[in-house]
Amino acid sequence: MSISRDGAEQFAVKAIVWLAGNDDLLPVFMGSTGADEAAFRNGLAVPEFQASVLDFLMMDDAWVIAFCESEGIPYDRLMQARAALPGGEQVHWT
Fold it and tell me: Which domain of life is it from (predicted)?
C-alpha cells in the first residue's frame, strides 16, 4: 500500500507533533540537525523538513516503535510516508 503525498504530509505532521512533545528526543533532533525553535515551527508545512523528521525517526527502531505505538499506526507506514515525500523515491542503480 502506498500513501499519497497529502497523506504523507499529514502523517509527517503527526510525527513532528509527537517529536515536539518528546522531551528526551526533541533535543537530540535539534542538536543533530542544527534546527532552532523557529525553524522547527516553520518546518511544519515544509515537505523537506517533514521528510527530515521521518528520516530522523527511522534512524532508531525504538523511536519508530514509540511513535507508531503512540499513534496506533503500523510500523511500515513511516517508511511509506517517507517514500511519498521529496527525496524518498527509491533509487534504482542498475
Answer: Bacteria
